[in-house]
Amino acid sequence: MKLHTVGFCGVDDSVDLRELMKLDQAFPGRWIEWGVLLRPDLQGTPRYASAETLRRLGRLARGEDPELPGRLRLAAHMCGQDCLRVLEGDLVRIKELHALLGFERMQLNPTKANEASGWVPEVAAAKLRQVAQALPELEFILQVNQETEELFQLLFHKEPAPPNLVALMDASCGLGKSPESWTLPEGVARFGFAGGLGPSSVLPQLEAMARACQAKQREVSVWIDMESKIRSKGPDGSDRFDLELVKAVAQQLAGSQWLRSNL
Question: The whole model's pTM is what?
């Protein structure tokens, strides 16, 4: 098992984007992906960037910021109404967000924890297929867990999934807990893992993921994503995206066996 991408999710207004850009450039190869959580009712609160920060991130993703040369690799993580609108097939909203942020991948988190429940699996599956087929240049990620299992089965097993539709195995529904054992999605070639990953856990959990892959006799290139364990409390008690914790993870991976050799 090798990693092609490592996602750090929850970039928000607590981040100095100049320092984030420096950190990104300190680890070449574009294997770092910065995740932006999108949920309109929480915009501007911890974990959810304000409109101005989103605009700035979009300029950085497109390489259009005159003060900070280079390009960030972004992923949009859809929660709340934005997630539900994707499951309703709202191409206008997706294109609007893509024009703003210039992301390469979009993750859907259709769970109660993310205020994105109540969808009908058959309808959501049909609409998401239509969206993926209409936007082949984007990769769409389904967060797979107990709540989304039926949707996952409809998308990936009832009939072949669009090639730009992939799966993130996250049994904790984004709550930052590692499973007792990692599960691979049957019949899915491109997938990733999330749950409880951070500076102190990333290497032992990668070992556990690799054992799960070996047990299934699968040589795979995957990605991992993390959120809760790369946050800390500021001096005033505020919840913040912590670049030092991100750096600690990146340094461990950059000097390890896990990154794919062509990165």
Answer: 0.96
